[in-house]
Amino acid sequence: MASTAFPTVRYASEEDVPLILTLIHELAAYEKASSSVLATPESLLKTLKFPSNPSSGYAKTLLIFPPESTHCAGMALYFHNYSTWRAAPGVYLEDLFVRPKYRGRGYGKRLLGELAKETEKVGGKRLEWSVLKWNEPSLRFYEGLGAKRMEEWVGMRVDGETLQEVGKMAEGG
């Protein structure tokens, strides 16, 4: 008889930081960007928000586990954002990752469902994220859930030395 048990979803704790870092590295390998990961256990401990200390950190992590298992199947790492046009908070999904051997079991949908509920709980009006243009499997997955491509928007970023240079503008330089 097949199990009818559901996967377990819970917030990550400080003890989960090594697992989160492993999942980040696995996601980076999938996205062909392993050399771009600068996260360390120490930096994650400083910047992630945990249930034991909800006033510190910036981003939260949900972990999903198969029924009757202690092996993590994936994660959703997210933070709250704000829409000026809607005058409402929202959730930005930084990373959704389900390990390959657990794909096709509804775990990605379950994590997105949890994030949709979180968005509604804070009075939010939208859940949003970015997807690499080449990642057709993920684009099809998200569109199949009703997500819309935001083709009219272009992502922008400053980092590294450019971030420092832009910061100097605050000093009049």
Question: Summed up, what is this model?
Answer:
This protein is of the alpha+beta class. The chain is built from five helices and five strands. Strand 2 and strand 3 (about 75-85) form a beta hairpin.
Instruction: Give me the Rg, rounded.
Output: 18 Å
- Tell me the number of helical segments per DSSP (H or I, 4 or more residues long): 5
**Distance linking N and C termini:** 70 Å
Low-confidence stretches: none
Shape: globular
Mean pLDDT: 94
What does it look like?
There is one protein chain. The protein is of the alpha+beta class and 173 residues long. The protein contains 5 helices and 5 strands. The protein has helices at 17-30, 41-47, 107-121, 136-144, 160-168, and strands at residues 8-11, 60-65, 74-83, 88-98, 127-129. It has a 5-stranded mixed beta sheet with strand order 1-2-3-4-5. Strand 2 (60-65) and strand 3 form a beta hairpin. The longest helix has 15 residues, at 107-121. The radius of gyration is 18 Å and the shape is globular. The relative contact order is 0.12. The model has no long low-confidence stretch (mean pLDDT 94).
Features:
173 residues, 5 strands, 5 helices, 5-stranded mixed beta sheet, 20% strand
What layout of secondary structure does this protein have?
Layout: E1 8-11, H1 17-30, H2 41-47, E2 60-65, E3 74-83, E4 88-98, H3 107-121, E5 127-129, H4 136-144, H5 160-168
